[in-house]
Amino acid sequence: MVMLYHDLAGIPAPIARWVEADNRLQFAPGPQKAALREQITAEFEAARDAVKNVGLLRVTLADAQLSDYDPGYGEYTIRALSPSSTIPYKALGTDVTLKFDNARTAQLWRVPAEDAQRIADTLGPYGRAALDLTLAVTGVVPGTAGGTITTRIVEYELRTQRGGQTLTRAKPGQ
């Protein structure tokens, strides 16, 4: 995510600084440092090049933070997709956050009342579900020690944490 952030923001990745901070280089014997420096630089450059033109991301969240069923509205709320939700990444001294542009609509899982009991039974007593997201990158907001990658939730799959049974596949806004 850090490499993707730098690519999207048009900010050159500080590869030379990252190489010098790499523990492999710091603790290597002096005669091995030059070759190791080249190897680590090549690794970072390959990672940087691998994210060019990335437009879709696949992210799995272990806990969707699913609410109880609301019979008044006929829906569950997927709290992990609320408008204030973010997914933080921290690496190489950089903080990168994923944020969802369409969280307000994506967080609502409408379910007919007659299906709610079957879903509750499938979830079990703790009601925990995992979430697989397909995200389209929509932009980037640079910050001082990293920044935010903005995304649109294209689709998601909600699964039981135990057993991985699919509860729903949805495309928000459709």
Q: What can you see in these coordinates?
A:
There is one protein chain. This protein is of the alpha+beta class and 174 residues long. The chain folds into two domains: 1-53, no CATH class; 55-174, no CATH class. The protein has helices at 2-9, 15-21, 23-26, 33-50, 103-106, 113-123; strands at 56-61, 75-77, 86-91, 94-100, 108-110, 129-142, 146-160, 166-170. The strands form two sheets. Strands 1, 3, 4, 6, 7 and 8 form a six-stranded mixed beta sheet that branches. Strands 2-5 form a two-stranded antiparallel sheet. Helix 2 (15-21) crosses helix 4 (33-50). The mean pLDDT is 94.
Summarize the structure.
This protein is of the alpha+beta class.
Task: Please trace the helix and strand order, writing H or E for each element.
Answer: HHHHEEEEHEHEEE
- Inertia-based shape: elongated
Low-confidence stretches: none
**Helical percentage:** 25-40%
Percent strand equals: 25-35%
Give the biggest sheet.
6 strands, mixed
If you compute it from the alpha carbons, what radius of gyration comes out, rounded to the nearest whole angstrom?
21 Å
Summarize model confidence as the mean pLDDT: 94
Domains (count): 2
